[in-house]
Amino acid sequence: MGNSNKIFVVVPTFNEAENIPRLAEAIFSLPNDGIQILIVDDNSPDGTGQIADHLADDYPGRVNVLHRMGKKGLGTAYIEGFQSALTSGADVIVQMDADFSHPPEKVLELVDGLINSDLVLGSRYIPGGKLDDHWPLWRKGLSYFGNFYAKVILNLPINDATGGFRAWRRETLLGMPLQRIRSNGYAFQVEMLYVAQKLGYACSEVPFYFADRKWGKSKMSFNIQLEAAVRVWKMLYEYRDLNNTENSKHNSLII
To answer: Are 49 and 15 in contact (CB under 8 A)?
Structure first.
């Protein structure tokens, strides 16, 4: 895609002080001057929000910061970030983690995939994709099972249902009923994909290597995993009457 398109990279943060300056530097080294970063910080006690403000000063017009008053969760952070980016005129919205588990060098490959798709997923489970080599077998098995569990129950015709490295067309997000999204942990990723599939949006996948974080602590917990397992079943009921006549996906993105 050309530099004429406004690309927003939405990055939710909670205690990512070590990662966020490195991530900004990596993203802005990409060969596209139309990229902006929107950091959505949940009042991180390690000062991530203040560091983000300094980055906004260092990169005027390219870094934007949303400060939230507490730890409100991943799902609402993304929803607020998406809405802010859309209001700011984003043509493309990329979502990614701050911890480098999602490689910045793959961002433009995701964006380019939108030429023929409404949504592009970074995938760990297609040829060329991979989980961290240093993960123990039980952790890899848990990741595979969680993905398989969501795919089978929701009948999702893609390979990576649980990943959070994605690129969206503006029109796709405008056609999504964001006010209906209820998941606020990692089940948010599954719910957004399920709704997009129900609405008939075309989805493609790009392989990437999922590396474990180098700095900071993981946010994954048993409660988050339990929420995801329960929420998958609730989605079947909550969206039983949703169909592809309810979206506005027929508007074309100029690329």
So the answer is: no
